[in-house]
Design a protein that fits this description.
- The chain has 60 residues and is mainly beta.
- The chain has one domain (10-58).
- It is 12% helix and 42% strand.
- A five-stranded antiparallel β-sheet has the order 4-3-2-1-5, with helices on one face.
Length: 60
């Protein structure tokens, strides 16, 4: 299952963040993906394989 996302894309993850937000913005791509919570601003970094497993859909 190939997802189309790029730098600046907004995505929804399968699990929500502890702050209650589930919408994230991609701030770095490459081998690792860095995403930032839209609601609280916290950043999380994960490898591309884990990111592809945890993404639900691309909003923009």
């Amino acid at each position: 299952m190939s997802k189309e996302y790029k730098l600046g894309s907004k995505v929804i993850m399968k699990k929500s963040h502890p702050c209650g937000g589930n919408e994230w913005e991609i701030t770095r791509t490459g081998v690792d993906i860095k995403i930032q919570c839209i609601k609280c601003g916290r950043s999380v970094m994960m490898n591309k394989i884990d990111f592809d497993k945890r993404i639900k859909k691309v909003v923009e």
